[in-house]
């Protein structure tokens, strides 16, 4: 018997895997043609999306979820992104689920702290 995860469960799996650096689990959550658009860039397809998540994962320390709201095939997660290069960054992530996978992701936050932190690293 195949069980399809809800939008809430997929969002939770996505963030848990990303925070743990478990990119194989993340790959299993994302649709092959996942479409990502965020403050720091865009990605088309699972390989580009994983590359972006791995890149930010290099400075990721913790994801502190404040609230997750899900309805039907949509989930929004509001969280503080804790990194080694910037103060915690309040972030909103919206996901659309199609055929049991994350197919579309939109992310927004104020990038100034992260950009300044990246600049200091260089």
From TrEMBL:
<dbReference type="Pfam" id="PF12680">
    <property type="entry name" value="SnoaL_2"/>
</dbReference>
<dbReference type="InterPro" id="IPR037401">
    <property type="entry name" value="SnoaL-like"/>
</dbReference>
<dbReference type="InterPro" id="IPR032710">
    <property type="entry name" value="NTF2-like_dom_sf"/>
</dbReference>
<feature type="domain" description="SnoaL-like">
    <location>
        <begin position="11"/>
        <end position="105"/>
    </location>
</feature>
<protein>
    <recommendedName>
        <fullName>SnoaL-like domain-containing protein</fullName>
    </recommendedName>
</protein>
């Amino acid at each position: 018997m195949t069980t399809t995860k809800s939008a809430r469960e997929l969002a939770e799996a996505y963030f848990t895997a990303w925070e743990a650096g478990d990119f194989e689990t993340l790959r299993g959550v994302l649709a092959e043609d996942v479409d990502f658009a965020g403050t720091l860039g865009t990605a088309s397809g699972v390989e580009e999306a994983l590359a972006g998540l791995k890149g930010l994962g290099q400075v990721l320390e913790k994801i502190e979820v404040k609230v997750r709201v899900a309805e039907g095939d949509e989930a929004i997660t509001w969280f503080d992104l804790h990194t080694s290069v910037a103060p915690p960054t309040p972030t909103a992530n919206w996901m659309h689920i199609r055929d049991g996978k994350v197919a579309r992701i939109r992310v927004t936050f104020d990038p100034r702290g992260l950009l300044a932190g990246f600049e200091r690293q260089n």
